[in-house]
Specification:
Blueprint lengths: L4 E9 L5 H9 L17 E6 L3 E7 L9 H12 L6 E7 L7 H13 L3 E6 L6 H12 L6 E4 L6 H12 L2 E2 L14 H17 L8 E11 L5 E11 L2 H8 L4 H18 L2 E10 L7 H4 L6
Helix pairs in contact: 6-8
Length: 300
């Protein structure tokens, strides 16, 4: 009989290399916000994959970047803070790199310090020619003894089994830490906040910088008149400037309505129940340096 394996796997990488898209692919469920922007992930998000012979707990971490606020510092602290307590690292880089950049080298140095088992994931291979990819693999393999190097395009389902098989091969025998029905340790409230924030990031494009965060003020389950389950959710989108507030609300409230509608549709699909969502926008200047708010993003 095959011995059951389990372990914690951290996904590390610079901002915008596709870590959140990758964890969603591996888990098979939408648990992390994926917007084509830097710093989309702010906290360490756990995703759980149960196979016949293993339980893999993924930790998606904030991207490594140059800190400018207390929030940025906390995000980087969270990313590097997970290394000591995990069994394996997935180090995600972009295929179109010519060399090891400053950010990737910083991560590599932390990996070397920890001497943890690491799988190198080279993402976005559809953007480069084979010769360039082979050269990049050669450069990285000179730096560290990776358990495996897997070139991928994280949007493609076919890479899921390849990565999961390689991870399973590198895990030790151990128990299932979570119920096999679970796929994340995030609460529904956290998932709701992530969903609303993701839609805001996508629709606002570059008009509003990453100066927003979402707080669910109310989340209550009830039955409607037809006896169907329904969540009443009230959420506030906080921003840093009055000018940003106007952009988020939009002309005649159209932008806020658009954010709310798409978030509601996705939540109904993910929560498998109807959602009654109300959203507001408030200004909270310089919240990124406010200790009481920033501590919410610290590693739990």
């Amino acid at each position: 009989m095959t011995e059951f394996k389990s372990g914690f796997v951290a996904i590390l990488g610079r901002t915008n290399v596709g870590k959140s898209t990758l964890i969603n692919l591996l888990v098979g469920e939408k648990i992390a916000a994926t917007a084509n922007k830097v710093q989309t992930t702010r906290t360490a998000i756990r995703g759980i994959v149960n196979t016949e012979n293993s339980q893999i707990i993924f930790i998606d971490t904030p991207g490594i970047h140059k800190p400018k606020t207390k929030l940025n510092e906390t995000m980087i602290e969270t990313s590097f803070g997970v290394i000591n307590d995990i069994d394996l690292i997935l180090f995600v880089i972009e295929a179109n790199s010519e060399e090891i950049g400053r950010g990737d080298m910083k991560i590599l140095e932390k990996i070397k310090e920890s001497n943890k088992k690491t799988i190198l994931i080279i993402n976005k291979i559809d953007l480069v020619k084979k010769e360039k990819l082979l050269n990049l693999i050669y450069i990285y393999q000179k730096q560290y003894n990776f358990e495996a190097v897997i070139p991928i395009s994280s949007l493609k389902e076919k890479y899921r089994k390849v990565i999961l098989d390689e991870i399973e091969k590198n895990l030790k025998p151990g128990p299932a830490y979570y119920n096999i029905e679970e796929y994340t340790d995030q609460t529904l409230r956290q998932l709701a906040e992530e969903t609303i924030r993701e839609k805001a990031l996508i629709f606002l494009k570059d008009e509003v910088p990453h100066g927003i965060y979402v707080e669910v003020n109310k989340m209550k389950f009830r039955k409607n008149q037809k006896g169907e389950g329904l969540y009443d959710i009230e959420a506030t989108i906080f921003c840093m400037r009055n000018s940003h507030k106007g952009i988020i609300i939009g002309k005649n409230g159209e932008m806020l309505k658009r954010i709310g509608q798409t978030a509601r549709i996705e939540m109904e699909k993910n929560f498998d129940t109807k959602i009654n969502l109300k959203t507001w926008v408030k200004v909270k200047e310089d919240w990124q340096d406010n200790d009481s708010i920033v501590k919410q993003f610290k590693m739990q």
